[in-house]
Amino acid sequence: MRPYELTLTAAADAIRAGRLSPIELVDSVLERIERLEPHLNAYATVTAERARLTAREAADDVAAGRLRGPLHGIPMGLKDLIDVAGVATAAGSRVRADHRAQADSAVAARLGASGAILAGKTHTHEFAYGLITPQTHNAWDTGRVAGGSSGGSAVAVAAGTATFALGTDTGGSIRVPAALNGVVGLKPTYGLVPRHGVTSLSWSLDHVGPLTRTVEDQALVLAVLAGHDPRDPASLAGPARDYRPGAGEDLTGLRVGVPRNYYFERVDAEVEAAVRRAIDGLEALGARLVEVEIPMTRYIQATHWGLMVPEATAYHERTLRAAPELYQTDVRTLLEAGELMPAGDYLRAQRSRTLMRREWARMLQDVDLIAAPTVPATAVKADEEVITWPDGTVEAVSEAYVRLSAPANVTGVPSLSIPVGHDTAGLPIGMQLLGRPLGESVLLRAGHAYERTRPARELAPVV
């Protein structure tokens, strides 16, 4: 097995045991980037020289017995919203063409301290305001969308051009591309991972989280990322935790909520079948299935847009007025629409979110987690703008992809997307596990137990 094919956990074990050098791993990943980038375009910037220098330093540290932890010597991709000192943060936009970060973001600083090595900055939909990432191609079929807005991060992990990556998630932007590219994506509890130094889309909905090959890898990254940072007003205080899920597969006593409404409505038949088989797999491991009613479903979309649109417009107010021509048409239209929203609509969305959080808390008293599709359809072709459902309903692709992921952003609960199979076209299907606030350990335990019953996942067969 070539080094770039290793999961984070396997690579960390090999480095610790002296079977693999960080230099070998980084060189392998950079060579993979050089070969596949013409097909995928996952990276906005590749920091090859910096990565090789850092790998040599890591190799010296490991040889001298100064191993900092499981991320030491591991190459990563960071979404091009996340500041790294001295590296451009273009946010996928001409607005930021000349921007270069002066300091590390909180997450980049924590990853750097852990010994992780930056391979490059990954592409995002412009300012994360979209679910497609149009410049990046799906790792399983380059004629299809990567998903967004963390499409570059998901594709890099799926193709082996990063051992792990970070993305951001405001309405599904980690989980959607994770599902469409067959990798694992986590949107943590709101406030668990600090956002200082990360370009905002919508401050009350934004999250930072990892994309990895396996659930076990997720736990290793989350342990480094999580923790209070006073520079983020939403950051949660609390002690450091070990998120590793353990080796067991027994889920006896775990109550898994299966939605009777919303999450299986207007969902592709193959996606539904794969997710229901995965839920049956959780039951076979000892979990008890409990039907649940998702509350306030008619208000989800309005609440999500009612919060996101005015917050995004407020963030971009100055540059939108000074240089509107630098924005892509789709993003500029959304930002300009935000200027027309009455303040009362934003206040009503805030009130709706408060009520929705209360109702979700009540629902989650009866179950330990909820299992549902991550997205209602697999990756569409790049030129497809709508999905037509069997009942004749026509839905914009971006609205379809955000529909099942947005509730976790509105309520702030954690959501983990894991691969659960492929459709007949060979495209990945994702299932999301949603839990109580700060319930990441439960989600990782369930996801890891399911994962252990499945064959080891291969990298995407990029042409």
Key features of this structure:
about 475 residues; alpha/beta; Amidase signature (AS) enzymes; eleven-stranded mixed beta sheet; Amidase; AS_sf; catalytic activity
Characterise this structure.
Pfam families: Amidase (PF01425). GO terms for molecular function: catalytic activity. The structure is a single chain. The chain is α/β, with parallel strands linked by helices. The protein has a domain at 3-252 and 393-452: Alpha-Beta Complex (Amidase signature (AS) enzymes). Helix content is 38%, strand content 15%. The protein is built from 15 helices and 13 strands. The protein has helices at residues 8-17, 22-40, 48-63, 106-114, 151-159, 175-181, 215-225, 269-284, 300-315, 317-322, 329-338, 343-363, 397-403, 406-411, 440-452; strands at residues 43-46, 75-79, 117-122, 164-169, 184-187, 207-212, 255-259, 288-292, 369-373, 386-388, 394-396, 415-422, 428-435. Strands 1-3-2-4-6-5-12-13-9-7-8 form an 11-stranded mixed sheet, with helices on both faces. A two-stranded antiparallel sheet has the order 10-11. Strand 2, helix 4 (106-114) and strand 3 form a beta-alpha-beta unit. Helix 9 (300-315) crosses helix 12. The radius of gyration is 21 Å and the shape is globular. The mean pLDDT is 97.
Summarize the structure.
This protein is an alpha/beta fold and 463 residues long. The protein has 15 helices and 13 strands.
Q: What is the second-level CATH architecture of the domain at 3-252 and 393-452?
A: Alpha-Beta Complex
* CATH class type of the domain at 3-252 and 393-452: Alpha Beta
Number of strands: 13
Q: Under CATH, the topology of the domain at 3-252 and 393-452 is which?
A: Amidase signature (AS) enzymes
Q: Tell me about the biggest sheet?
A: 11 strands, mixed
Unreliable residue runs: none
Radius of gyration: 21 Å
Helix percent reads 25-40%
Structural class, from secondary structure content? alpha/beta
Relative strand content:
5-15%
User: Biggest sheet: strands side by side, in what order?
Assistant: 1-3-2-4-6-5-12-13-9-7-8
The chain-level mean pLDDT equals: 97
